[in-house]
Specification:
The chain has about 100 residues and is of the alpha+beta class. About 30% of the residues lie in helices and about 30% in strands.
């Protein structure tokens, strides 16, 4: 199944985000088969990130929860809220990346 995960960061955590970014990206790189697309979210281009979004392929929602709970951003308290939504991809012939 495909899922969209939307993360909202806690306020005033930009320094923590920057300190953890390399570990977070390395963690994502090790999970390319599961986390198909990932990136930060901003209100305006060039502004500090306010969270992130992933497209994940997993057997179920519990697998997604277990996955993100090992991400350095989550482990070290950057995330304020996590939404997990089932995603039905339109235009199935189009690649995700």
């Amino acid at each position: 199944m495909l899922f969209l995960i939307r993360f909202t960061d806690k306020p005033d955590t930009l320094a923590r985000r920057q300190a953890l970014l390399d570990a977070h990206v390395a963690w994502l790189a090790g999970r390319r088969d599961t986390v198909l697309v990932a990136g930060s979210l901003r209100v305006e281009p060039g502004e500090a990130p306010v969270g992130g979004a992933w497209i994940v392929e997993a057997p179920g929602k519990a697998d997604v929860e277990a996955l993100y709970q090992t991400d350095p951003f989550f482990v070290h308290g950057l995330r304020e809220r996590v939404e997990i939504l089932h995603w039905s991809k339109a235009l199935p012939e189009r690649a995700l990346v």
